[in-house]
Amino acid sequence: MGTLVTVTEDDWPLWREVRLAALTDAPHAFKARLADWHTGGEEQWRARLALPGAYNVVALLDGRAAGMARGVPGGGRASELRSVWVSPEARGSGIADQLIAAVEAWARQSGATVLKLAVIPGNGPAIALYQRNGFVAMEELGDLLPDGVTREHVMAKRLC
C-alpha cells in the first residue's frame, strides 16, 4: 500500500508531475489531453488545485508518486470522483482502491450522499475497478467526448 498525501496549491509541482504522467501513460482514459496541460505554467496548476471544496490526493510508493485522485463538489448532495490514475509499476498494489477510499471518505465528511464518476467507454479495467468499489452504472448521460459523438459513462455509489 502507498502513503497518501493531500495536495494543496503549494504542492502544484507534485500534482503536475503526476497528472502529466497520467496523461502520457493513459491518454485514452481521460477527457483532458496532454497538450492541454503540458505547457501549463504555475498559475494554471495552482488554479486547478484551488477549486473551493475540492480534495486532491497523491499516492506515494517508496517515496515516488505512484497515483492520484481528485474529489470535487458535484452539486446538491453529490460529490464527484475524478482523475484516478495509478502508475504502471504500482498497478495491482491496492493503491487505486486506497485512492478511491480516500475520496469516498472526503465526500462523506463533506456531507455527500452519493459519489459519482464518469469513465471513458471501453475502459474495461477502470470500470471493473469502480464496480469492485461499489459503483454502479447510471442511465444518466455523461459529457460529450472530443469526437463529438461518444459520451462518458456515468457511475455512482450511494454513501448513506
TrEMBL record:
Alphabetized InterPro entries for the sequence: Acyl_CoA_acyltransferase, Bact_Acetyltransf, GNAT_dom
Chain segments annotated as coiled-coil in the UniProt record: none
E.C. no: 2.3.-.-
Keyword annotations from UniProtKB, A to Z: Acyltransferase, Transferase
UniProt domain N-acetyltransferase: residue ranges: 2-160
Enzyme class, first EC level, given as a word: transferase
Any one GO MF annotation of this record: acyltransferase activity
PROSITE patterns: GNAT
Pfam (any one): Acetyltransf_1
Highest taxon above the source species: Bacteria
Keyword Protein transport listed: no
Protein name as catalogued: GNAT family N-acetyltransferase
